Backbone:
């Protein structure tokens, strides 16, 4: 044969193939709107719901039938031995898809049917959701069976493939295999009190390959095995390498083993951004919460794993997460995969900077994908300063023995001073400005020394390093030189160079001496041993504010206002003294 003949044969062959494709018959789908028998091959499409019907509703008695439910429902009346869709017997290549079946004894039933497909079926409230009897080489995929007695029931049926089916909350079994072997069952979701019954060898996994599995894990392998009480094998297995496959096999019995069970494990995550502190806004000093305030601490714990978590213990610590630092504990009942839960406690604030550490599942009782991201911490600053304000008024009456009034003096000048100290008495004549020696000379580092004695230096127990929380920061420029000064007259004696702050807003350093309310800081030289310097002989601090009517804290009117460190109290007490002029 020459080249021309070869070419002619090729052309004839191409023409023949083309003609063959064109003349293939096309069958239009037959619409179904009521129960019926299907006796002919072809495509059938349900066009409406069929509700409250008797058995059988759809019976297929032909080969090569495609029945598409189009998402509609075929519903029965819970009668015994009833069928939603029944195929058989001795037919092949029957497909039933995209359908909901409910309230039947058999939702979908294949009897002596081979090489067929059941896919996209939702079977709810049937005795048997999907039932195969003496049916081989069928494919059952992408179906949901819930609230049936049995989700999928195979009797004397072999060499079938079951994949991507969800069998949950079925009262007797998720899957029931009776005299059925050599079936391949993988990538299914089981979550029933009894997940299976099996009496012949079957294959329960495929080869591990990359791909999204039925629980959105990253690998295909076996099945997901859960129990409603969250103690199922897949819910409690370990997955050290994070491949979403359990590290060990799951043996249903000696001849039925899932070698690659899917892992659906929670992963609790806590970050600094998920920790919050809340308190009444009026309980704030210098931008920080006051001492002895009820602070609400909330931790939002996220579950970024694939599995749900329950009974999550959350521990709160003041400092590192160690037992000795524990403040309180809380329990979150449930955190579903992809959701979050809140743990909340109440803490009575303590002066200083506190690194509040929080740890979810502190005892590591839950199996997780990653235990290292369960804890976080956040700083809360508690101000060492408290403010006091109010009104002073006075009436003094001197009377004789007979009750006759000799002198009746009413104080209404709004002049005088208020003193605050940690001791019940001091010598007014021995008061001097902090930062000055008894002779009036400049003393070095007196403000820093005061902070040290009151535990208010950065790094101490009470005032760990946040701005505006110590005497040095508020009253001085560098620990020696005052920021602002004024003079006070105490019982006729003028005390110059008194370091002062604005009582209403201690961090406002502008024109402090002209503020309505100011607080000055003094020391009592009574205990001085002769070096005339504060801080080495147990000398006491005294805070002073002038009486002056005006508007201050809370935009209220009063005639005195002062800010003092909480730590000056001695055994829980501070003492107020008033000089009226």
Residues:
């Amino acid at each position: 044969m020459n080249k021309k003949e070869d070419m002619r044969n090729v052309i004839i062959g191409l023409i023949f193939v083309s003609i063959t494709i064109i003349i293939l018959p096309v069958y239009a789908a037959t619409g179904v709107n009521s129960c019926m028998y299907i006796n002919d091959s072809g495509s059938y499409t349900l066009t409406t719901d069929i509700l409250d019907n008797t058995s059988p509703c759809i019976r297929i008695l032909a080969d090569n039938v495609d029945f598409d439910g189009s998402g509609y429902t075929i519903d029965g009346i819970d009668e015994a031995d009833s069928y939603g869709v029944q195929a058989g017997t001795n037919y092949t290549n029957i497909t039933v898809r995209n359908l909901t079946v409910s309230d039947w004894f058999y939702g979908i039933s294949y009897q002596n049917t081979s090489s067929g497909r059941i896919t996209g079926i939702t079977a709810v409230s049937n005795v048997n959701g999907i039932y195969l009897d003496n049916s081989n080489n069928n494919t059952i995929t992408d179906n949901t069976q819930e609230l049936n007695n049995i989700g999928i029931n195979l009797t004397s049926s072999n060499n079938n493939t079951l994949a991507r089916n969800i069998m949950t909350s079925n009262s007797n079994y998720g899957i029931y295999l009776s005299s059925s072997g050599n079936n391949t069952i993988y990538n299914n979701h089981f979550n029933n009190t009894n997940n299976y019954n099996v009496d012949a060898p079957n294959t329960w996994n495929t080869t591990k390959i990359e791909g999204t599995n039925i629980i959105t894990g990253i690998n295909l392998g076996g099945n997901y095995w859960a129990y409603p009480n969250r103690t199922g094998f897949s819910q409690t297995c370990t997955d050290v390498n994070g491949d979403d496959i359990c590290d060990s096999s799951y043996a249903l019995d000696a001849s039925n083993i899932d070698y690659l069970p899917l892992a659906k494990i929670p992963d609790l995550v806590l970050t600094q951004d998920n920790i919050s502190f809340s308190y009444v806004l009026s309980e704030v000093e210098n931008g920080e919460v006051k001492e002895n305030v009820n602070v609400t601490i909330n931790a939002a714990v996220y579950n970024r794993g694939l599995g749900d978590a329950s009974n999550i213990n959350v521990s709160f610590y003041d400092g590192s997460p160690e037992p000795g630092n524990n403040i309180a504990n809380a329990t979150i009942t449930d955190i579903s995969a992809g959701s979050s839960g809140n743990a909340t406690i109440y803490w009575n604030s303590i002066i200083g900077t506190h690194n509040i550490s929080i740890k979810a599942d502190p005892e590591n009782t839950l199996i997780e994908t990653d235990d290292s991201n369960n804890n976080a911490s956040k700083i809360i600053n508690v101000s060492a300063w408290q403010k006091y304000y109010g009104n002073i008024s006075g009436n003094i009456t001197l009377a004789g023995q007979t009750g006759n009034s000799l002198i009746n003096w009413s104080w209404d000048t709004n002049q005088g001073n208020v003193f605050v100290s940690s001791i019940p008495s001091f010598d007014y004549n021995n008061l001097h400005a902090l930062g000055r020696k008894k002779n009036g000379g400049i003393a070095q580092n007196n403000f820093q020394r005061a902070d040290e004695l009151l535990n208010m230096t950065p790094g101490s127990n009470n005032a760990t390093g946040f701005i505006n929380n110590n005497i040095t920061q508020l009253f001085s420029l560098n620990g020696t030189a005052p920021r602002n000064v004024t003079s006070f007259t105490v019982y006729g004696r003028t005390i110059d160079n008194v370091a002062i702050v604005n009582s209403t807003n201690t961090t406002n350093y502008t024109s402090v001496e002209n503020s309505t309310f100011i607080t000055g800081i003094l020391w009592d030289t009574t205990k001085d041993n002769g070096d005339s310097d504060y801080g080495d002989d147990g000398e006491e601090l005294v805070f002073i504010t002038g009486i002056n009517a005006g508007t201050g804290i809370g935009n209220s009117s009063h005639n005195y206002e002062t800010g003092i460190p909480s730590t000056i109290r001695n055994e829980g007490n501070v003492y107020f003294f008033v000089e009226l002029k």
Notes: The CA atoms of residues 433 and 522 lie 5 Å apart.
